[in-house]
Specification:
single chain; OB fold (Dihydrolipoamide Acetyltransferase, E2P); Transcription Regulator spoIIAA; six-stranded parallel β-sheet; ThrcA_tRNA_MEthiotransferase; Threonylcarbamoyladenosine tRNA methylthiotransferase MtaB; alpha/beta
Length: about 450
């Protein structure tokens, strides 16, 4: 049977789709493109915004036009939060929530035999155990692989529905993470990206034991390894030619003091994605972010002190309910001050079921659009300054591929700069020392030192 997957949303969804692909391949299914005719279509949904929900519904209708007789399975966050709505969409045959998607092969086979339920959803208070998906052995990219280390979130930011979609914080056993990392390194992957719903919360739940048991971790000694450092340390000690990159981190979990602990690991890339969301302390409080802009800048200063070229990317929301021009200007100021390498700007989107959706003083669309445009420009200027500051330095670049149109090899430096360079030899999927010489395209042109 032919099966096609369509994935919306975050890196965790991408990882979980890959895990499912491998399960179906083991059962003899043939993976095909989501544009092609297939017997089964799997839509792994996102529900961050109302737009995400709409995209999920649109794709469901699209695949039914390709093959009206196909089995359409809709899984993930949208289904978890809105199971009745999802199951009533014309053409949907089977739904599975965030903690049930791992069992999709069995559910589909039961459905084909006319047995079992077509609805597989656990209630929010049942989302308490980490659901092991098994060891993945490949990714769509040939150089970089995601490793899921954590599930769930307990921060409850006022604009975010994801804690309700993903449930309680639970961490994956260290042994499983290490086993997966070893397999991926053996397969030739040279960058391992640690990801989760709130990656920084790894090992922070009560009673956590990194071996997968229920003994409570000890934090009394300064030398005691806890939190995400457990995994960074374990992977840093593995043999092989690879590096580690952290996924998105929350400054309400990772303090400057804790970040300092991570800087000693040589394989860890000097790059963090630290979600700011607003430069205004008043708005941060309304968002329930539990840190101030000063805390964020303290963390930035620590990282830049360690490495002036440390790459820091971020997310910022404009037009949050009640955001004044003064609040917005604080976001612009921090973008200019923090030496950020890239800023992802999002216009606030009301998400039903969150506290922010019920707040008064919702901002008009035209004001959100104007602020978004201004902040994007400030972010682009900050990114350009970051690139200029890195010129003349030598960085380690993981070469991904050669563009046949330009003859240039391209890849990312350890501090997450897109780098282009020439080589007479095939250097794909190799680390190369490159001197950055000039701003070029969406990154920097460099001279190859060695590989």
């Amino acid at each position: 049977m032919k099966i096609a997957f369509h994935t919306l949303g975050c890196k965790v969804n991408q990882y979980e789709t890959q895990a499912l692909k491998e399960k179906f391949i083991e059962r003899g299914y043939e993976i095909t493109s989501d544009d092609d005719f297939a017997d089964v279509y799997v839509i792994n949904t996102c529900t961050v915004t109302g737009l995400s929900d709409r995209k999920s519904r649109q794709f469901i209708r699209r695949v039914k036009k390709i093959n009206p007789d196909s089995i359409t399975a809709v899984i993930g966050c949208y289904v978890q939060v809105s199971p009745e709505e999802a199951s009533q969409i014309e053409g949907v045959d089977l739904i599975a929530g965030t903690n049930e998607k791992n069992h999709l092969p069995e559910y589909i086979e039961e459905y084909l035999m006319g047995r079992g339920s077509s609805v597989h959803i656990k209630e929010y208070d049942q989302l308490t155990e980490y659901e092991e998906t098994g060891i993945i052995t490949s990714m769509d990219t040939r150089t970089r692989a995601f490793i899921k280390i954590q599930e769930g979130c307990d921060r409850f930011c006022s604009y975010c529905i994801i804690p309700y979609a993903r449930g309680a914080v639970r961490s994956r056993a260290r042994t499983e993470i290490v086993k997966e990392a070893e397999r991926l390194i053996e397969k030739g992957y040279k960058e391992l990206v640690l990801t989760g719903i709130n990656t920084a919360l790894y090992g922070m739940e009560k009673g956590f034991d990194s071996r997968g048991g229920k003994q409570e971790a000890v934090k009394s000694s300064e030398d005691e390894v806890y939190g995400i450092e457990i995994i960074v340390k374990a992977l840093d000690e593995l043999p092989g030619d690879f590096r580690i990159r952290l996924g998105s981190l929350e400054p309400n979990v990772i303090s400057a003091e804790y970040a300092k602990r991570l800087l000693k690991y040589k394989r860890l890339c000097p790059h963090m994605h630290l979600s700011l969301q607003s430069g205004s302390d008043r708005i941060l409080k309304q968002m329930n972010r539990n840190y101030a802009s000063a805390d964020y800048l303290k963390l930035v200063d620590l990282l830049k002190e360690h490495d002036p070229g440390y790459g820091i990317t971020t997310d910022i929301i404009v037009g949050f309910p009640g955001e004044t021009e003064e609040d917005f200007s604080e976001s612009v100021k921090i973008v200019k001050k923090a030496g950020l390498s890239k800023v992802h700007v999002f216009k606030y989107s009301k998400r039903e079921g969150t506290k922010a959706a019920e707040m008064k003083e919702q901002i008009a669309p035209q004001i959100k659009a104007k602020r978004s445009e201004e902040l994007i420009k400030a972010g682009e200027e900050a990114g350009k300054r970051f690139l200029l500051q890195n010129l003349g330095t030598i960085r380690t670049v993981l070469i991904e591929q050669c563009d046949p149109n330009t003859g240039l090899y391209e890849g990312f430096s350890e501090n997450y700069i897109k780098v282009y360079c020439r080589s007479d030899q095939n250097i794909s999927n190799q680390f190369a020392a490159v001197k950055l010489i000039e701003v070029y395209s969406d990154g920097v042109l460099g001279n190859l030192i060695n590989s």
